[in-house]
Amino acid sequence: MLKICKYCIYKQFFLYICGSLYKNSVVMRKFLIVFLLGFTVAANAQYYGSGTSTTGQTDIFGNTTTTHRDSYGNSYGTSTRGQTDVFGNTTTTHKDAYGNSYGTSTRGQTDVFGNTTTTHKDAYGNSYGTSTTGQTDIFGNTTTTHKDAYGNVIGTSTTGQTDIFGNTTTTHKDAYGNVIGTSTTGQTDIFGNTTTTHKNAYGW
Question: Each residue of 70-107: pLDDT tens digit?
Fold first, then answer.
């Protein structure tokens, strides 16, 4: 039961970043994209491999939806980001393959130090963690630090610069600095869709 709960937590962390994928900075697109994948792989490496997250265009209501698929192309959930409210907060709602909402991730405004924090909550409104993205360093890398409900660091996601092919890769690490996976976002296609490919630490 404990493993299932932890899996759900990391899954929602993962889906949050996917839901932020469209209008936000590159790191906000991806720091969570393999977070689920990486932690899931760490616990169940024999069952999980690559997957994708595809973000479409923003609809007439200002909502942007990302569809998450496993390595076989099966959709296992969506993340829909709404418009920013009057307080400067943007909320993403996560749903499973059956359309059931199981949590939200709310990104606040950037503070005076240049850090932006997102609070993750379950379906009952209980906060189970945060993800804080700092400023881009002199090498063009942006790091997001993930913490649990008690403030303990559980991992980081570092996004590098975009390469000459228009791809941007984020490397995800656990609390001990071990790489658990990567997420690579390509260019937006002619239909306005942007796809991110997730791989675990073994490259599959």
Answer: 989 999 999 999 999 999 999 999 999 999 999 999 99
In the prediction, which pLDDT does 51 show?
92
CA distance 204 to 200: 6
Contacts of 46 (CB under 8 A, 6+ apart): none
Residue type, 186: G
In which domain, by residue range, is 104 found? 2-200
Distance separating alpha carbons of residues 163 and 186, to the nearest angstrom: 10
Beta strands in 111-200 (DSSP E): 116-122, 127-133, 142-148, 153-159, 168-174, 179-185, 194-200
CA distance 67 to 195: 9
148 residue type, one letter? D
Domain CATH for 135: 2.40.160
Q: State the Cα–Cα distance between residues 174 and 57, nearest whole angstrom.
A: 32
Q: What is the pLDDT of residue 32?
A: 43
Asked if residues 9 and 129 have their Cβ atoms less than 8 Å apart, the reply is: yes
Of residues 120 and 4, more confidently modeled: 120
Q: What are the DSSP calls for 133-155, one per residue?
A: E----TTS-EEEEEEETTS-EEE
Work out how many domains the chain is built from and give that number: 1
Please choose, from the candidates 70, 122, 123, 121, the residue with its C-alpha nearest in 3D space to the C-alpha of residue 97: 70
Does the predicted model carry a pTM greater than 0.85? no
